[in-house]
Every structure is written in structure tokens, then in C-alpha cells.
Amino acid sequence: MENPKPKKDLTLDPENWDQMRELGHQMIDDLFDYWQSIRDQKIWKPIPAEVKDFLDQPIPETGQDPNEVYEDFKKYIFPYNKGNVHPRFFAWIQGTGTPLGTLADLLASGMNPNTTIGEHAAMYVDRQVVNWCKQLMNFPSEASGILVSGGSMANITALTVARNSFGEEKIRQRGLKAASAQLVLYCSVETHSCIQKAAEIIGLGTDAVRKIGVNDRFEMKVNELETQIQSDLSQGLLPFCVVGTSGTVNTGAIDPMEELLAISRKYGLWFHVDGAYGALAKLDPNYSERLKAIEAADSLAFDLHKWLYVPYEVGCTLIRDAKKHREAFAITPNYLLQESRGLSGGLDSINNYGFELSRGFKALKIWMSLKEHGREKYAKMIAQNNRQAEYLADLVNQHPDLELTAPVSMSITCFRMKRADWDEDQLRRLNREILLRLQEEGIASPSSTILKGKYTLRVANVNQRTRMKDMDLLVSEVVRIGHSIHTI
Ligand SMILES: *Cc1c(COP(=O)(O)O)cnc(C)c1O
């Protein structure tokens, strides 16, 4: 019997492969033009209302030619980029990305392996990259790790292991009610907000987060930490974890790692390091000693989309005790059974080490980038950013109308324009206006923060495109704009 001839099977592959191939080449050309001319472009421009309207239209019911779709992208999206690919982007802490990293993401997306389980090359690349991360951080080879979407996920992953590893209470099985009293976590007032969010999500609650005060350099006060631990113990609470930050998001401050480690050991607490921004500063010889104790931490979270400059998104959690790591997450339902052979053979499933099941092939951009440049080049790049931040601080110190608002640590420089006879409120408005004009004129993008009541321009540099001369320009433009403002 003959099968009835199908009318036409549907597919999402292109009707015209040659056209799509040509479009792909065009996209790559456009990206390369963009990167190569980025220095001459405005760092940011406001989004016109017409564009916002276009990006508010309802779902298309019928399709469009891919070339037209790409034209829409070029008209409505591409020109209004955030700017963190630009050499003078210094807002928040955001990496630049690299051409090969981008191409790696294209390849990863084209191969499209769900990198969580099974016998295929991506699993081995992922494992190798996690091993390279351990080597970057000088973690023992028996430690475990997982690549996640970023620092926030990396931190909550580590804190979940810390919580589940607490005592003999079987918290994973029985929940927090298994603990005889409230578990308490310690960090500083300068700790990133994701630590508090993580504590809330893993069931500790905001009240269980002790935010210890900081010294003049914005580093956690160790004496206060110890006093707080003792006071909590005396009230029958259960201190379980100290979070030290290597590179705070505000000022790049480094908590006293050795002391935090010693206190954690003394009281039997889990020592976690949030190195989302600054753990990689270990590669700069000027910082390696101060960050040495990271190597002894029970867990470490750090971002690769910040100071390894790879495109978004990817962060890493490392856990010293691989067994505890696996015990916090491993679960094997019937549909995820592993085999000793075939497609379901191979390495331990990655979802035994974190919450996410489906995972992209984000390891590839790190793998290709580390092979392209090698560890030594990254060490020099990170050191270069740190020297640029110090150079900017020198320029600020040399200028009579500018002042630093925090000591420079790592690659963050905080400063502001000052004016004799102007009060704090006027200085806040002056510096805010300088910041907004810098951004709106497309010159440079610092961000702002408030340090000890002082409104501050904040220049955070994890930018692989920045040159020393960008710091000269930044300072001269701040001064130019500032001097053009007489009343506010
Ligand atoms: C950026 C940052 C985070 C959050 O990381 P994401 O990658 O943005 O999720 C946490 N802690 C510190 C210190 C950071 O700098």
C-alpha cells in the first residue's frame, strides 16, 4: 500500500538556505564593523518614543521575511545598545565581551547541546572549563564546581550547599525546622544584595542576615563580627556561615580574608567568598597576597562575564568538598537514569550540582577565550584595569576641583567634583548633573553611588577596551561639564 503523499511538511528551517547564509554573513560583517568603530561612536543614546512604541507591539500572527526581521533589528535595537562594549563604559560592573567569545556563543547556539547530561563533547568541555576555573583560583583539583548564569546564581548555589551541610540535622530532607534554632549568616553592610536575597530564598529570612559594619576602607570589621557571633551563640542561635566579599560592588573593597577564614574556623562556620567581581584580581600580583585566603574558602562564587570579559551570561561556583556539593543537589528521577554506555553514558549529570536542569553550552566561550589568550594575558588585562583605576585616582588627586570619595581598591575609582561653600545637597545635584550629561552626550558611562552620605561618580573598570587616555578624557570632560554649571 502506498503512503498518501503528504501535502507539505512544515519546518522552521529556511525556505531559501542561500538567502539565510548570506544574511548570516551580513550579520557577522555588521558586528565586526560595530566593534571596529566602537571607539568613535557615542556610548549611549536615548531611545526615541517611536522605537519604544515599535517594541511594544503585540505578537505577530504571521511571519515575515528574515531580511526584514533583520532590518527591524538594525533600525530599532542595534543603535540603542547599553554601551558596555564601549571603551568608556564604567557603570555598575559590566564586562565588555570579545569577538571570539561572541563567535563561540554562535557556535554553541548552533550546536545547541543541552549541556546537563549525556555522552557528548560539550560535557567534557564544561568539565574542563570548571577545572580551569579551579586552576585560576588555585582550588584543589578534587573540589567541584558548576557554571551558572552569573554571580547571583553562583552565590545562592554555594549558600544552599552551606545550609544543607550544616550539622547532622538533615536540612535537605526535613527543611529548616530540623535545626534546633535559627541559622544565622554573617556578611557586611557593603555585601551585594544577592546574598540577602539568597538567604531569603533558602528559608533563612532577612532577619537571619547579620550585616556587620565596615571600616574607613569599607572592609568588614572583624571585631564586630566576632562580637556578633558570640552574642548570637549566647542567645542559643546557630551561626553557620560567614560571607566575605573580595571586591565589593560599591568600592571594590576587600574584606579581611585571612581573619574571616580564621574566625570561620574558630567557630566551625562555613566560609563563603563572594568574588563575583573581584576574585579574578588574584591574577594581578598586586592583589594575589591579599586574596590568598580565597583558596581556603569552603565555597567561592565568581563571574566570568565581568573580569574574564566573556559575553553574558556566565558565573561559576566552586565548592571545596565535592561530596557535600553533590549531596545538596543530586536527585535521579526515572527519566534521568544514567547508563554506562551510549548517549546516556559518560560524566555525572551536571544537574546533580545545581538547581538548573537544562543548560546551554556556555562553557564554549570560556574554553575558546582561555585558549585564545591564555592565563598570562588575562592576568595582564586585569592588572591593566587596576592600573587604570589608580591612574584615574592620580588625576583626581592632582586636580584642585576633584576629590576621591573612597580609597581605590581593585579597578573601582569613586570621586566627585567639589566646590568651596557648596553644601552636600548642592554637591549631590552638581555631580548628578555631571553624570547625566556625560551619559546623555554619549561621552562616558560611569554610574553613581552614595558613600558616607556623599553622592559619588563611580568608575568600575572591567573593560578590555579601555586605554589610559580614556581616563584623561573622562577627567577633562567631568571638569568641563562641572565648570559649565554655575548654579544648581
Ligand atoms: C555583580 C556582583 C554580584 C551579582 O552577580 P551577577 O552576575 O550580576 O548575578 C554579586 N556580588 C558582587 C560582589 C558583584 O560584583
Quick take:
It comes from Algoriphagus aquatilis. This protein has 488 residues and is of the alpha/beta class.
How would you explain this protein's 3D organization?
It is a single chain. The chain has 488 residues and is an alpha/beta fold. The protein folds into two domains: 17-44 and 82-97 and 375-488, Aspartate Aminotransferase, domain 1; 113-360, Type I PLP-dependent aspartate aminotransferase-like (Major domain) (Aspartate Aminotransferase, domain 2). Helix content is 42%, strand content 13%. The protein has helices at residues 17-36, 49-54, 66-77, 99-111, 121-137, 151-164, 171-174, 193-201, 222-234, 257-266, 285-288, 304-307, 322-329, 363-398, 424-440, 468-483; strands at residues 89-90, 144-148, 183-188, 209-212, 238-245, 270-274, 299-303, 315-319, 402-404, 412-417, 445-451, 454-460. A seven-stranded mixed sheet has the order 2-8-7-6-5-3-4, with helices on both faces. Strands 1-11-12-10-9 form a five-stranded mixed sheet. Strand 11 (445-451) and strand 12 (454-460) form a beta hairpin. Helix 5 runs parallel beside helix 14 (363-398) and helix 6 crosses helix 13 (322-329). The longest helix has 36 residues, at 363-398. It is globular. It starts with 16 loop residues before the first helix and ends in a 5-residue tail after the last helix. The mean pLDDT is 96. Pyridoxal-5'-phosphate binds next to helix 6.
